[in-house]
Specification:
single chain, Beta-Lactamase, Heat Shock Protein 90, 3 domains, five-stranded antiparallel beta sheet, elongated
């Protein structure tokens, strides 16, 4: 897995997106480790390798302390300087041995975080070597594996993580790794019981099923947060379109207001024309309110309530959001809507997120190419009385034939600054409604994305 870094030029939203993406990817990979490991050493070593591979971490180290001995024994390690902590001593007497975050976390039972190793005065002896090794921040998290049958602590140890980035371990990040450590100790305890008791495959399968369901809930929660953060990032690109859409009805309100005043200020007030002007004010004021409501619903962390929706209306709203970007890129928009299209029962924000993502991808594909004709074509149609289809076609750079089967894979992207989750999330949303999202090469160039979802009877 390639190491991912955060640039100092990234915006706060981009940093949040990258952080969320890294954590989601690591959580998914760690869950695979928990399910697949056959031995405790394999479990611990794979866990360290997963953390060190893609989290801006230079070192992931796990040590166990045995009750009969007074030092922490390394049992798994991965990353830069993996042998650095192999000889850490532990003693209740703080004057014996070299004090380190590992010692403090082990002794206190709480995570010990050092966000600027070079300046932290708590670890004078230890920090010299740590800085020399290239570490700028670190966190040590205590591990405790309980024997439920005997009601006692069966094992104690620490998970130690180091980064070259100062301030890397903020409060949320420490909490995230503490939860991963908790999942790890549960996996260790489960594996030990399975090996010691010779569990039948049926019991082991039931336990694995419970763990897998919990992991899926964790993944879903992080996926929803990433979707929300992605919408916030896209909002920045749409600021000009939003201002344009709000300014239009507001300008009409001002114009109608001036007209109404003019019709009332004459020697013989024209009440009919004034009434018509004020009617237009109400209409345009409501239109501005609708624009604002639509924007808020697109970017807030909304619930999952489904309602009866007209897909053509959702597409038109998305086009208003991206109008400024379309104009800047000199793209022609063509629509071909089935006026008799049946409605669908969906979450409005979710389906708009799908359409918006596909439209933005099409715009990006055309803005990065050198083609003379730039056309965005959107089509809606009823495949049959029970199914509708939406197609988004562009004349951009297209999809490489070797990648056509991978575009929906999580974390796959061809964009230098891409997250690699947009299409995967879109596919998940469409499939949750019993539909299907498809991708194909356009002819003679470009790409074609389409999705089909079941129609619904209005209730």
């Amino acid at each position: 897995m390639p190491q991912q870094s955060t640039s100092i030029n990234d915006t706060p939203v981009e940093r949040s997106q990258n952080k969320c993406r890294r954590q989601l990817q690591t959580l998914s990979l760690c869950n695979n480790v928990f399910f697949q490991a056959q031995t405790e050493h394999e479990l611990l070593q794979s866990f360290c390798e997963t953390l060190a591979a893609g989290n801006n971490l230079q070192l992931a180290w796990i040590g166990y302390c045995e009750s009969a001995r007074e030092f922490i024994r390394p049992v798994a390690k991965a990353g830069v300087g993996a042998d650095y902590f192999d000889c850490l001593e532990f003693s209740e007497d703080t004057g014996k041995g070299e004090l380190s975050p590992v010692d403090l976390a082990f002794r206190s039972g709480e995570p010990c975080c050092v966000n600027d190793i070079a300046q932290d005065s708590r670890f004078l002896l230890w920090r010299v070597s740590a800085v020399k090794a290239g570490y700028a921040s670190c966190v040590a998290i205590p591990l405790s594996v309980s024997d439920i049958r005997k009601g006692k602590i069966d094992l104690r140890g620490t998970l130690h993580l180091c980064s070259r980035e100062r301030g890397f371990f903020d409060e949320d990040t420490v909490e995230y790794y503490a939860k991963l450590a908790s999942h790890l100790t549960f996996a260790v305890a489960t594996l030990r019981r399975s090996l010691s008791e010779g569990l039948t495959s049926g019991v082991a399968a039931l336990r694995a099923k419970h763990e897998r369901e919990q992991a899926q809930r964790n993944l879903q929660a992080m996926r929803e947060e990433l979707t929300r953060v992605t919408r916030l990032g896209e909002m920045g690109e749409m600021a000009a379109s939003i201002a344009h859409e709000i300014n239009q009805p507001l300008a009409a309100v001002v114009s109608s207001g001036n007209a109404g005043l003019q019709w009332l200020s004459g020697p013989a007030p024209d009440l009919d024309r004034a009434r018509a002007a004020f009617t237009r004010i109400v209409r345009d004021g409501n239109r501005a309110a609708d624009v604002i409501t639509g924007i808020r619903s697109m970017f807030k962390n909304s619930d999952q309530t489904k309602s009866f929706q007209n897909v053509n209306d959702l597409i038109c709203e998305v086009l208003t959001f991206v109008r400024a970007k379309v104009d800047d890129c000199m793209i022609s928009v063509r629509t071909d809507f089935d006026k008799k299209l049946p409605g669908v029962m969906v979450n409005r924000v979710q389906l708009q997120q799908v359409i918006l993502n596909l439209v933005m991808n099409a715009i990006d594909a055309m803005s990065s190419g050198q083609q003379q004709e730039r056309v965005l074509h959107l089509r809606s149609e009823a495949v049959d009385p029970l199914t509708i289809k939406v197609t988004i076609k562009d004349t951009g750079i297209g999809i490489d034939k070797d990648n056509i089967e991978r575009v929906f894979d999580p974390f796959f992207t061809t964009k230098p600054d891409g997250i690699g989750l947009g299409l995967a999330i879109c596919q998940s949303i469409v499939e949750s409604y019993g539909g299907q999202l498809l991708a194909e090469q356009g002819y003679p160039r470009g790409s074609v994305f389409s999705f089909v979802i079941p129609a619904a009877n209005k209730v």
